[in-house]
Amino acid sequence: MTFDSRYVALGDSFTEGVGDWDESRPNGVRGWADRVAEQLILADSSWGYANLAIRGKKLHQVLAEQVDAAIALEPTLVTIYAGGNDILRPKVDIDAIVDAYDAGIAKLCASGAAVLVFTGFDSGKSPVFGATRGRTALYNELVREAADRHGAELVDYWRMKELQDERFWDIDRLHMSPAGHMLTAKKVLEVLRRTDAIDLPELEAPPARTRAERLRHDAQWAREYLGPWVGRRLRGVSSGDNLTAKYPVPVHIRPSAGN
């Protein structure tokens, strides 16, 4: 099937859609990029959608494996976010990875596609991931400069303060919940100057916990999510090692039943 317009999404788990679980979708996830594509297609059926993002990918892998593949699809619109998995590593050269990222963004822009990039999330309130806040702030400034230099659109994820609410996050505290993905989709469409029919769900009241209950809750999270996450990194393996892209070529997708 051919399409007059093609949206191609690149990146890691953030763009693949982890946290927005949907067993009816490839890789079992939906995500903000699917939701953006659904709205584009609902407004104009000439759009096709490809998503090359795979969870666990570091920036150099996204650039090496996805950029040329995206350009080969002759995209009208490309969204890309990469570097989050690098920032969480024990050591990272932010200047070096964003230099490489800059070249990738330039290549995508030179293809004639409209390109949209993201800053990183402000994790300052996280007792675990907050330690990377300074790295992310530096990464963000360099990404903003790259976007300005190449004429890319920017979603300033750092400034989406609504996402400081834990209800926008999955139980693993690393990936957004469905509500977080929906909020991000609406922001992307706003930056693209597109309308949407996404209705954010009414969030349940956050659970009231005593200090002891919070400690037990945090300990359970560390056992079930933080420990395995650290273990994978120590072993040099990724949750995405056996996965392929959700939509390697453009397709039509529609909203899931009921939402």
General description of the model:
The relative contact order is 0.18. α2 packs across α7 (178-191), α3 runs parallel beside α5 and α5 runs parallel beside α6 (133-150). A six-stranded mixed beta sheet has the order 5-4-3-1-2-6, with helices on both faces. With 259 residues, it is an alpha/beta fold. Helices cover 42% and strands 12% of the residues.
- How much is the radius of gyration in Å? 18 Å
Strand content: 5-15%
Order of helices and strands: EHHEHEHHEHEHHE
CATH architecture descriptor text: 3-Layer(aba) Sandwich
- What is the fourth-level CATH superfamily? SGNH hydrolase
- Largest sheet strand order: 5-4-3-1-2-6
Secondary-structure-derived class: alpha/beta
Q: Helices, strands, pairings?
A:
Layout: E1 5-11, H1 13-16, H2 32-43, E2 47-51, H3 59-72, E3 77-81, H4 84-87, H5 94-110, E4 114-118, H6 133-150, E5 153-155, H7 178-191, H8 211-235, E6 247-251
Parallel strand pairs: 1-2, 1-3, 3-4, 4-5
Antiparallel strand pairs: 2-6
